[in-house]
Amino acid sequence: MDPQALETEAHSAIAAALSVSELDAVRVQFLGRNAELPQALRKVRDRETGMTLNALRQRLDEAVNARRDELEEQALTQRLSGETVDVTLPGYPVPRGHLHLITQIRREIEDVFLGLGYAVLDGREVETTYYNFTALNLPEWHPARSPLASLFLDEDTVLRTETSPAQIHVMESTRPPVYVVSLGRVYRRDTPDATHSPIFHQVEGLAVDTGITLADLKGTLLHLMRALFGEERRVRFRTHYFPFTEPSLEPDVSCFLCDGGGCSVCKHSGWIEMGGSGMVDPAVYGYVGYDPEQVSGFAFGLGLERIAMLRHGLPDLRQLWENDLRLLGQF
Prior knowledge:
single chain; alpha+beta; 8-stranded mixed β-sheet; 21% strand; elongated
């Protein structure tokens, strides 16, 4: 093999390659495993010849790489000169996520009460039976204390059945006046169906001060209902029983769909039941060291899923947690 002649031939072939694919063929021809130069290197027996052939292979490698860079730059230049981009065309829309409907409603309610001067509490999802039942004035015989109704972790620990325990905590550490709302997940031993779930969300409010009356409760709930369902809403109360309050009342809001005329949403009554409320039972003040002769207060509780179902006409609350983007993307 004549190294000089081989080098001259290889450089001519490299320079003649007009594309990367042609250059690859030249590289295989002169530097591939079965090419003359690699075969000669395998047969080398002396140091001088080996150094000469290795130097030749290195020069050919460098020549191939240099020619590849030239061809790629030429191809890029040619492609750019032939392509045009209309920068005035609109780009492709990038889909964005958004807050879940329940989170949206929770933030709406938080904004309403922050505007009224209330503090927002999170509270603990795992509570003692003292804070979840006893301090809320639930008697020993109350059905909520049964393992058939609540999710107990042990004899004295339960997954909270409502967010009210947070109110006991804040009253223990704060002297009146107290204006708080507590929002979050609650847990009950319910069989899932269209209107029930073992995990759902509540907002509960508490106001304790001097001179608070039922009129303050009605005005607060009226303000909330109008913020959630429209400025024309009206609120009425029906007597009920809740251990935490006395007297206890169930608030109804005038139907936002038929405006009181009667429809399937309000069961043709013109009113929609929203939750529970009432004046704080004086017995509760005994657990937190308040003087019932000096202060009074009201409390209320509403389900966020129920608000979502009523406001948006959802037939089944389980739809909120099935991760169906066709539904969730509407809100």
